[in-house]
Structures are given as structure tokens and as C-alpha cells.
Specification:
The chain is an alpha/beta fold. It contains eight helices and ten strands. Strands 1, 2, 3, 4, 5, 6, 7 and 8 form an eight-stranded mixed beta sheet that branches. A two-stranded antiparallel sheet has the order 9-10.
Length: 258
Amino acid sequence: MIFSDYHTHTVYSHGAGTCEQNVLAAIERGLSRVAISEHGPAHLFYGVRNERLRKLRREVDELACRYANDIEVLFGLECNLTDYGACDAPGDAPAICDVLLLAFHRGVRLKSPFMRRLGAEALGLHKNDPVETANALLEAAGKYRITALSHPGLYVKSDIPTLAKGAAELGVLLEINASRVTMSKEELKKADELGASFLINSDAHRPNDVGEFASALNAAREAGVIDSVLNYVPDMPELIFLPGTAAAVPAPGAGFDM
């Protein structure tokens, strides 16, 4: 089973529920960890920035204290690629964020020729070099200490072998997104062969979808990569370490050593 969900959205961006509703949904699902991971500030429509971002951090901290006996609540950010090798992670992101995700998203200001080409591809008007796109994400991931690349290949094509090899070298995970599985069975197999590890996340935009992993679990099992999913445990409780963190995460039912 999947014991944690590191990618959930709330009313702070384009989700339908509050942070507390997402936390309560995660508890009801039996999760040990949940992260509120809103869009970074560069997203024109959904980005959380300035005082609103600080307010969100305070709210997540309050929920973490309130529900400490039931679940671990983390503060995340889904960063937006803003140029080749660049994203909108705040300068103090490693200090204020527990989880950093990264992806190309539509709705980001297209300031450079590279980003304008990606924007055209997202609209079906142009085809870019998928290897270049993968390398752009990898350079940003290494520079900003990204935890995982969310929904690889969504909106713009990324070369999965390039992404997988680079992610393995950087210690960055590839997300199998349960809201929309973006990697094919063959791509998942190849990524696994190249040493990549995975996270399964819900990308929930409603509380009812927090901890809903069925499509991603099925994809991982069919591709034979389930053992490389770091937030998956088969039966017995055991300690799992998320790259970039020092804390061991107990599987459901194992309790917390707070």
C-alpha cells in the first residue's frame, strides 16, 4: 500500500477543499504522511506567493501540531519550470519547504525563446526536442534540490530515459501521478532499468481524491516497477527514507517517533 501523499492541492490554488479537509481525508485513508503542495509563485493563475505563501506555511504548521498524533503534515511546493534550468522555487525553499516538486505547467509567463517553444508545444503548435526538455528539468532539479519531478511528460514531451538517468544521478524521484499517469508501461520499465526511483501521488484537487492511488498503483504493477516506488510498502511495517530528508517514515500502523 501507499503510505503517503506528497502532492495535494487546496483552495489556496485550484483545489476545492481546505488544508484541514485534505489532512482529515488523508487520516481517513490511513496515510502516515500528507503534504500540501501548491503551485509556485510564477504560475499566473494558481501560484501562491508573498504573504499568501507565508500564511499557507503557518496554516500547515498549525495542522501539523494539531494532528501530530494521527499523521505527519508537510509543507510542499509544486514549482514551475520558468526557463532552461530555472524554476520559481523561492530562495529559502530548502528551509521552508519539506517537499519540492517540479514540472512544466501551462499558465507560466513565457519570457524566453525556450519557454515560448514549450508554450507552443503545450498548445499543440510545435514539437520540441524531448531530450532538451528533459535536460532543462534536470538542470533545475539539481540546482534547486527538487524532491521529485511531477507528472513527467504532461503538456510537453520529455525524454524519459534522459530524465530517468539524470534523476537517478541527482537522487530525484519520478512521480507516477494517479490523477493522470503520464508515463507508459515501456517508459516506466526503462526508467526503472536506468536506476530511477518513483513516488506515487494523488495530485488531488478535492479532499475525496487525497490518497486515491489506484491508477498509479496499477501502472506501477503492470510495468513491474512497484518495488522502486519509495512510498509503497507491501505488508509489513518498515522504515522508509525519502531522499532529501533525515527522518524515517513509518508505514501505516507503525506509529510515529516524534
